Task: inverse folding
């Protein structure tokens, strides 16, 4: 994101560079899929033309890049939570703005960051089951217990701002926490 301390012209340049990188990624993905290129007027009723992706191929590739970037952002947010960063710190790093959209009306920066990561609280699934953001328990004790049980790294729900940070004594994942009992008879020692 552009540096908010920079002036308007510098921010415009930074946004232009971000758009150029995104457009290059879209074109690269579409080209890799064998998308068609077409020549179209630069603006309506113009003799000037531009060579570009077929619009639907471009739109599909742009949407796929958007979804991929969102997935990558969530993984970085997960890693930040595992490293002990608060939702407020994550929100400031993401430069989320409370009240920026309907899902964030009246939220704090921390709550807006959680909504970005965990999704809207207004979906049918969230209304029925609640929302949570999963993170991996990384303590040495938990890792040894997981290895003993032969299971994948356990993910723990993060109910959002106001809840304990991963690694805190209230989070259920601390280096001094006793290992969970293993339900696999062949893995017990």
Result:
């Amino acid at each position: 994101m552009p540096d908010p301390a920079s002036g308007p012209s510098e921010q415009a340049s930074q946004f232009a560079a971000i758009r150029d990188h995104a457009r290059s990624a879209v074109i690269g993905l579409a080209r890799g899929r064998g998308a068609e290129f077409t020549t179209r007027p630069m603006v309506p009723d113009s003799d000037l033309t531009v060579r570009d992706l077929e619009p639907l191929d471009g739109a599909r590739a742009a949407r796929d890049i958007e979804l991929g970037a969102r997935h990558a952002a969530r993984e970085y947010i997960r890693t930040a939570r595992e490293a002990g960063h608060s939702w407020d710190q994550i929100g400031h790093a993401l430069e989320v703005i409370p009240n920026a959209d309907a899902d964030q009306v009246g939220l704090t920066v921390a709550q807006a960051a959680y909504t970005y990561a965990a999704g809207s609280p207004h979906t049918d699934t969230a209304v029925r089951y609640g929302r949570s953001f999963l993170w991996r328990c990384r303590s040495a004790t938990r890792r040894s217990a997981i290895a003993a049980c032969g299971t994948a790294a356990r993910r723990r729900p993060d109910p959002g701002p106001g809840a304990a940070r991963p690694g805190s004594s209230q989070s259920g994942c601390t280096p001094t926490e006793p290992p969970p009992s293993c339900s696999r008879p062949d893995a017990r020692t």
In short: Helices lie at 8-32, 55-82, 87-94, 109-118, 124-129, 140-149.
